[in-house]
Amino acid sequence: MKPSELSKLRKEISKVQDSKRFEHTLSVAYTAANLAACYGESIDHAVVAGMLHDCAKCLPEEKLLSICETQHMEISQEEYMKPSLLHAKAGCYLAEKKYHIVNRNILNAIHNHTTGRPDMSLLEKIIFVADYIEPGRRQAPRLEQVRRTAFADLDQAVLMILEDTLKYLRDSGSVIEQTTQKTYQYYKDMQNSKQHFPGGHGET
Ligand code: DGI
Ligand code: FE
Ligand code: FE
Question: Of 101, 100, 73, which is closest to residue 87 (Cα–Cα)?
């Protein structure tokens, strides 16, 4: 991506996010760029996906629902109970229609950045992890450990994040989206099979 295109995208996103969210967006973009460099993913794709991952985050819940309903997207019971979860799906739609992203991998990374999904692509995992470990995040437990792991074993970092997120959601009595639970199970099984068969087919 040309520097002028990136600066245009940055300007556009700064218009639809409050300053705190915009700081987070920039941090996710450069954290994703570093993970991309570490794992051999396109740095450009990582930066664009990072810049756009929360492009729908500052929209009101009614707007998120109306975008998803108008586009005939499937909305789960959990999403009806917590419509803010839809900022990922709605963000994917806006990335395509408003910000003219055509790359499916980038769009998927935006779509799945909140719950993850089983068998994520490298870029999807990079955005999922960057969102959680960007330097502005302060709250999560064992954040230092997750940050170190992110650059050594990306699948393990995905698992740790899901584990801590599910614990936090359970402790706070929040609704849990099935995809979050399924993603956790998938990465738990993957990491277990790597432990039992190191270097086997589970290794990526
Ligand atoms: O948009 P961000 O705040 O940068 O990050 P995000 O899109 O990952 O959203 C973070 C929140 O989403 C965090 O508080 C955990 C929550 N979340 C993830 N999976 C689920 C969930 N919340 C509920 N209620 N249910 C889920 O399954
Ligand atoms: Fe988000
Ligand atoms: Fe985010």
Answer: 73
Sign for the pseudo-dihedral over CA of 137, 182, 107, 127: positive
Give the Cβ contact number of residue 73 at 10 Å. 15
Cα(196) to centroid(ligand 1), Å: 31
Q: Which residue minimizes the CA distance to atom 6 of ligand 1?
A: 114
* Tens digit of pLDDT at every position of the chain (204 positions): 888 899 999 999 999 999 999 999 999 999 999 999 999 999 999 999 999 999 999 999 999 999 999 999 999 999 999 999 999 999 999 999 999 999 999 999 999 999 999 999 999 999 999 999 999 999 899 999 999 999 999 999 999 999 999 999 999 999 999 999 999 999 999 999 998 888 765 545
Measured CA distances, 14 to 17, 23, 53, 104, 136 (Å): 5, 9, 13, 24, 17
Pocket flag, ligand 1, residue 27 (CB < 6 Å): no
Per the rule left: phi > 0, alpha: psi between -120 and 50, beta: everything else, 154 is alpha
* Tokens linked to 97: 């229609």
